[in-house]
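Quick one, tokens below. Sequence please?
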């Protein structure tokens, strides 16, 4: 006589097969609807984008990807490494980005953040997209 675990496995098998079939149908339907109704990415034209920690690593990569998608926008970089800031600004300007602004801002210092935010708002305008990327190294 079969033990209890083998009976449980045999009893669950049809449900698992049914689940796999339904999941495969779901995947195909999702692909079909993505072809019929493609998602158009939001245009970055004219946006003001602030990237904290934007001079190194992932932040710099974010800035590069933004620059690949659109040139008619403003990218603001806040970082603590002045040398990396100037290198990133030069790189972004060479790709044709219209406005690249940068400042040495330590985002762990509330006073620096408030002062820098006031300058950004006064001179550039409201930030429409924020990438909080700064970290502790």
């Amino acid at each position: 006589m079969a033990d209890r675990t083998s009976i449980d496995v045999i009893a669950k098998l049809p449900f698992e097969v049914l689940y796999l079939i339904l999941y495969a149908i779901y995947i195909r339907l999702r692909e079909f609807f993505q072809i019929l109704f493609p998602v158009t990415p939001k245009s970055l034209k004219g946006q003001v984008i602030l990237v904290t920690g934007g001079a190194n690593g992932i932040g710099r990569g974010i800035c590069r990807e933004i620059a690949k998608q659109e040139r008619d926008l403003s990218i603001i970089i806040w970082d603590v490494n002045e040398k990396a800031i100037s290198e990133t600004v030069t790189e972004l300007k060479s790709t044709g980005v219209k406005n690249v602004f940068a400042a040495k801002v330590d985002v762990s210092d509330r006073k620096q953040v408030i002062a820098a935010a006031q300058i950004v708002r006064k001179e550039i305008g409201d930030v429409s997209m924020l990438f909080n990327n700064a970290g502790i190294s």
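The chain has two domains: 1-39, 48-132. Residues 1-39 form one domain.
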